[in-house]
Task: structure prediction
Amino acid sequence: MIMITGGSFQGKIKFAAEHFNINKNDILSGENCRFDNVFSAKCVSNFQYLIKRLIENKIDPVEFTQKLCRDNPKAVIIINEIGCGIIPIEKSERIWREQTGRAGCIVAEKASAVIRICCGIPTIIKGEIK
Result:
């Protein structure tokens, strides 16, 4: 598993495409994909929105992410950093941030490489890019 993280619009998908042989058809968006499709996807982008949808559908994001790591260990997971900045007033937004952080930690732990992209520039946090 590969995890790519960073802020919005920092070049995460472009980096994944260039370094991990991923094309547009290989990428599922967490915003609107079927939950069960992530278990066989080559790449899942907007993982933070998948977590939000899981919460809305009363599916445990931690259990779901653990299953994803077990069932699809070669996936590339692209997740935006959403835990920085001002803490949201709305409780549901705080829960979303917390659950996204927990899921991100699970993916990072299981990943062979974790890469942070800022301004299109990769920083390897864990592992190496092959």
About this structure: The first helix runs from residue 12 to 20. Residues 2-126 form a domain with the Rossmann fold fold (CATH 3.40.50.300). The chain is about 40% helix and 20% strand. Residues 16 and 22 are 6 Å apart (CA to CA).
